[in-house]
Design goal:
The chain has helices spanning 12-23, 40-46, 66-72, 92-102, 150-159, 168-171, 194-204, 207-225, 251-263, 287-292, 307-323, and strands at 5-9, 30-34, 51-55, 77-83, 105-110, 126-130, 143-147, 232-233, 245-248, 296-299. By secondary structure, it is of the alpha/beta class. The chain has a seven-stranded mixed sheet with strand order 1-7-6-5-4-2-3, with helices on both faces. The chain is globular. It starts with a strand and ends in a 5-residue tail after the last helix. The mean pLDDT is 94.
Length: 328
């Protein structure tokens, strides 16, 4: 069903860097990236020499806004990055249609969502995966690059091996080792290693169970928050990986709510600040992204969470509504 070609990489950032090297075309070197994502998504393309343009997001989900994307496409663009933020599935059909109409490469940032359970073939031309310690199939620190095109993968293998056209196992396959062979591409050492791959494969076997465990946590949090109180969950569906649980609250009361949860012994965070606020990528205000990043709160969610831990967090979430005003 999937087809294509795959390469284990040192991490997801390495996979994204390789994607950037593959998608650049003559006189087309601008990539369109949603403003709400981890900073590695844009850094990987910037360090490959591409110009990054940020695209606004849906303020209810944080996912790329196809309408804002369409307004930004011109002849300088070479690629669009779809980020499956928090495990939500981006609107790939709409993005695929736009990319086909303008001859753009569609790159999927799958750091938050492994698509092994999808029954449909992939719509992206390239997909980049993370096996970081907090991701769906942790391997310490590793990643994977998937390409539809075999010639692109041949280039990726060369770039990921310092530009050499023959890797060490092939070079040393006979008692008289073959000479080093230099290709036309400059490269870096970006490949994954066997121990990380072993951990990833073992955790892939547990993927269905860990995803179900997080879905159970999501359901409990949704029940606690979904009554029109001070925090509201994002609307998620069954295509989700349930990797990260995030809720929205009014910007003016977010800090106070997080302090109350901290007093109850519950850690919170927020993912992510809009990259339009980053000095290296700011291109003016993006209203949807800058509204979203002032409202989002990330709650603990991990497969090994005990019933006691879950009950304590749910009780604290319910208690938030007792003293605080409802969202305006």
């Amino acid at each position: 069903m999937r087809g294509g070609h795959a390469l284990a990489t040192a991490n997801c950032t390495a996979a994204l860097h390789l994607a950037a090297r593959l998608c650049r075309r003559e006189r087309r070197s601008r990539v369109l990236v949603p403003a709400i994502t981890f900073v590695s998504t844009v850094m990987a393309f910037a360090y490959a020499g591409l110009e990054v343009e940020l695209v606004d997001v849906d303020p209810h989900t944080g996912l790329i806004d196809p309408q804002d994307l369409a307004r930004r496409i011109d002849l300088d663009c070479c690629a669009v990055v779809a980020v499956h933020l928090y495990g939500q599935k981006a609107e790939l059909a709409a993005l695929r249609e736009l990319c086909d109409a303008h001859e753009l490469t569609l790159i999927e940032d799958c750091a938050h969502r492994i698509d092994l359970f999808d029954t449909d073939p992939p719509l992206g031309d390239i997909a980049c995966y993370s096996f970081n310690a907090v991701k769906e199939a942790p391997g310490g620190e590793s990643g994977l690059l998937w390409c539809r095109d075999g010639e692109w993968m041949d280039r990726a293998r060369q770039i990921s091996n310092l530009g050499l056209t023959i890797d060490t196992p092939s070079r040393a396959a006979t008692p008289v080792h073959r000479d080093y062979a230099f290709g036309d591409e400059l490269g870096l050492k970006l490949r994954g290693f066997d121990l990380a791959a072993t951990l990833v494969l073992a955790n892939l076997d547990e993927l269905a169970g860990s995803r179900a465990a997080r879905a159970r946590i999501f359901a409990a949090f949704d029940a606690a928050l979904g009554r029109g109180g001070v925090m509201m969950p994002l609307a998620r569906d069954l295509a989700d990986s349930f990797l990260m649980y995030v809720a929205l609250t009014d910007a003016g009361q977010r800090d106070a709510l997080r302090q109350r949860l901290a007093q109850a012994g519950i850690a919170t965070s927020f993912h992510y600040p809009s990259l339009s606020r980053h000095s290296g990528f700011s291109q003016g205000s993006l209203a949807g992204a800058e509204t979203f990043d002032q409202q989002v709160v990330t709650l603990p969610c991990f497969p090994a969470m005990s019933d006691d831990q879950l009950d304590r967090i749910v009780a604290a979430l319910v208690a938030l509504d007792c003293d605080a005003p409802a969202r305006g």
